[in-house]
Amino acid sequence: MVTTHLTHWGAFEADSDGERLTRVRPWRGDPEPTPLIENVASAQHHPTRIDQPYIRRGWLENGPGPGARGSESFVPVSWDRALDLLAGELRRVYGQYGAEAVYGGSYGWASAGRFHHAQSQLHRFLNCLGGYVRHVNSYSLGTSTVFLPYVIGDVGWVTQRATAKTVLAEHSELVVAFGGLSPKNTAVSPGGVSRHNTRGWIAAARARGCRFVSVSPLRDDTASEGDAEWIAPLPGTDVAMMLALAQVLDAEGLADREFLREYTVGYERFAAYLRGAEDGVAKDPEWAAAVTGVPANRIRALAREMAAVRTLVTVSWSLQRARHGEQPLWAGVALAAMLGQIGLPGGGFGHGYGSAAGVGEPARVPVPRLPQGRNGIDIFIPVARIADMLLNPGTRYRYNGQELVYPDVRLVYWCGGNPFHHHQDLARLRAAFARPDTIVVHDAFWTATARHADIVLPSTMSIERDDYGVGEGDSVFFPMRALTRPRAEARDDYSIFAAAAERLGVGPQFTEGRSAGGWLRHLYEQWHLAQSRAGHELPDFDAFWAGESLELPVPDPRQVLAADFRADPVRYPLATPSGKIEIFSATIAGFGYADCPGHPVWLEPEEWLGGPAAERYPLQLVANQPRTKLHSQLDVGVYSRSVKISGREPIRMHPSDAAARGVSTGAIVRVFNGRGSCLAGLVVDDVVRAGVVQLSTGAWYDPDPADPGFCRHGNPNVLIADRASSTLSQGCAGQLTLVEVERYTGPITEVEVFRPPPAEVVPGL
Ligand code: PGD
Prior knowledge:
Layout: E1 4-7, E2 10-16, E3 21-26, H1 38-44, E4 54-56, H2 57-62, E5 74-76, H3 79-97, E6 102-103, H4 118-128, E7 134-136, H5 142-151, H6 155-160, H7 165-171, E8 174-178, H8 198-207, E9 211-215, E10 229-231, H9 238-251, H10 257-263, E11 264-265, H11 267-275, H12 285-292, H13 296-308, E12 311-315, H14 326-339, E13 348-351, E14 380-382, H15 386-391, E15 396-399, E16 402-405, E17 411-415, H16 419-422, H17 426-433, E18 438-443, H18 448-451, E19 455-458, E20 467-469, E21 476-480, H19 493-503, H20 507-511, H21 516-533, H22 541-546, E22 550-551, H23 563-567, E23 581-582, H24 586-591, E24 619-622, H25 638-642, E25 650-653, H26 655-661, E26 668-672, E27 677-684, E28 692-695, E29 703-704, E30 707-711, E31 736-743
Parallel strand pairs: 6-17, 7-14, 8-9, 8-12, 9-10, 11-23, 12-13, 17-18, 18-19, 24-28, 25-27, 27-30
Antiparallel strand pairs: 1-2, 2-3, 4-5, 4-19, 15-16, 20-21, 21-22, 24-31, 25-28, 26-27, 26-31, 29-30
Helix pairs in contact: 3-19, 4-19, 5-14, 7-8, 9-12, 9-13, 9-14, 12-13
């Protein structure tokens, strides 16, 4: 039997002895497999796997309440004891404070597999108990999700209906990629990737003569197959370059007036800004050169070229994960609208062709999902406001035209995410995690988040359970049969919740009388019925389960974003307030937010190389997605560890900056600013722009016992401000910060977080 398995970073085939994977090779259908799959087998039996349930000692001794989490030892307990304690605490909190005291937002990617999707399981469980405080939006796309519906349409539409990569390969003549087209990012997609194809489509377009321009502080942000011209504005200033491109189109009569008239609103307001009518400053290439560092003649020539050929303007997700993240998106949409090519094959606007594998994959039919039930309360936070919520219960704040109040949360339940990876200003997050009465975490590994919990329950890895899965935007549906037994006492999240639900008297409501295997069959059969009613003949469950993979129907393989809108804007209006592209938004202007006015603008961020803060911290840190793992997942795996330097995460620096500091490749450096510091291993390389350093996210947070702001391993989130992208979207702005780097002269000890935390059996407890 072929034993295929799906991860967020690709499908693989494996041999197993029932306990561990003995051989792993990429799925034969994948033309560009990624070495990330090597992390799976090597991590499965790492000492940081959680082997059984644990309770934080102080919680067990003193009961629920605020506490100094993250430094105490844990007491191993039996499953029965852990589940009794969990059920008792949930009963107490729901009984005394209600569902509004339970934060179940639990952001995170968890693992591939549709049924055992950790967040869905948690939400279904908490809904059986009355509901929970939820989160809205994501760390990936927090700004776009709120903002794009005002301007061009829902983010799901923009990303899932994006013009197919095969269409770009055939039609684009110029691709201007703000934030690049990075194969390391498109190695992954939530839920999985079957056929990686970024290098393939870029190579095909290039072979046909398409020119690529990669706008990024990192030269290798676009696949080498594109042979791209590299333009490197100061990080955070792309919008100024876009404004100048737009200004040239406007000033030289190159803007498509007919398109602007028929398909957009508000161009004149924006044009007035470009011309300097509002502030006396024309946003011309000379102005932009002073802001971005990109020569004016380069910007002017690019604008003319963009107007002359079929051009795609694409903006990466990373650009909106920053202060004023709306602005590069909005300017990108405005620029594409001025070129008049939105809705044409190979031209127009894109968002995330280099950010996740699914963008540019034509949409396929929906897939089975676990029903999550109904949340009995309607209280939410924008996902990246977690620390604000825990630190400031009862405080009012503004978001997306609303005034909201942070709830008073007593119990935090996390399942399938790692906030001590994904959030910013980790010392502040640690203070926030000290506040609730109880924190519950399920994870397969002793991540920093598990170490900050009171009740820690070991979950299985996806290779240890039966499931099925398919990536967002991917069209190959895989059965995911268990490849090995669960490690030690690990259980899947479903079994954990089923046992807790039983104790809380909601067992039948949660399980509906089904085992995990029963659910897999039931959900598939329901889906199968719906698909056959829609005219799709698909194999039944037994045939699917016994097979290798299933190609899902794709209704429009050559989809072009907004083609129908272009053909008939009255019949197919956009999902914006006016039904058109909004270059000026009366709705956004009406909110009156200084950090997001009514049309695209250049706003100086607090931390950029052109501002006063750079005098003290003169290097711009780009904290992007890692190449050797997904987020923080399987950081203990061989591929992730293969690039570490003396066990520290690598940081890349331009030779001129390294020379100025007297450091060279292989040195351990201290990266610091006023918020925190971390160690990292230096790589000197001119692929980064001078003035920039790049340290990817994902190294497990390894705080110094005396200083939670000092990570000994290289997690950049100790350095980055917990500051929202804007009042409008309250999104994650974790991409950029200012730092200084110096040679580290202290002792270089083992990374503690790669060992399990101290555990002790305490008689009587
Ligand atoms: P992961 O490391 O994927 O990070 O943040 P996210 O929290 O998603 O965490 C998933 C966790 O789920 C892992 O600890 C894994 O072991 C666990 N897990 C996996 N499978 C299971 C399971 O079946 N059950 C249970 N219970 N647990 C499981 C990612 C987030 O980080 C994202 S999406 C983005 S885009 C952000 N990017 C940036 C950035 O660009 N810059 C900065 N500075 N910070 C960022 N943070 C954000």
